[in-house]
């Protein structure tokens, strides 16, 4: 059973991902998959933006007291997302596709969320 603190964190993340997906759709992204899970971990959102296949990491905060949400996508996280993206591309036979990594930063308010997309947030990390 999850502890209440972990449950709050999970619910905050899910709310942020739902807000991010809606925002992305309104800005022309075609959502292909959400919460793609494999043995290596999970990708939050996989989408198309024009010709690009986009791997999106969603970071959600209730405030900026502990820093901006996008600051949580550090080098270790970038490496993990890169490995997950490689797995996905191989699994779907999309190895030749043009791809990029975006970060969606969501800061929640009581009624909604402030959303910022950082396109090409980082390059593939070996």
Order of helices and strands: HEEEHEE
- Biggest sheet: strands, sense, closure? 5 strands, mixed
The counted number of beta strands is 5
SSE-based structural type: alpha+beta
- What is the rounded Rg? 14 Å
**CATH domain class:** Alpha Beta
Helical percent range?
25-40%
Strand content: 35-45%
Number of helices: 2
Within the CATH hierarchy, at the fold level, what is the topology?
Answer: Trna Endonuclease, Chain: A, domain 1
Mean pLDDT: 92
The shape, in one word, is globular
* Neighbour order of strands in the largest sheet: 1-2-3-4-5
Unreliable stretches (pLDDT < 50, length at least 5) are: none
* Span of the ends, CA to CA: 36 Å
The total domain count is: 1
CATH architecture: 3-Layer(aba) Sandwich
If you had to describe this structure to a student in words, what would you say it looks like?
The chain is an alpha+beta fold. It has one domain: Trna Endonuclease, Chain: A, domain 1. The chain is 32% helix and 38% strand. The chain has helices at 4-26, 75-91; strands at 30-38, 41-49, 52-61, 99-108, 113-122. Strands 1-2-3-4-5 form a 5-stranded mixed beta sheet, sandwiched between helices. β3, α2 (75-91) and β4 (99-108) form a beta-alpha-beta unit. The protein is globular, with a radius of gyration of 14 Å. The mean pLDDT is 92.
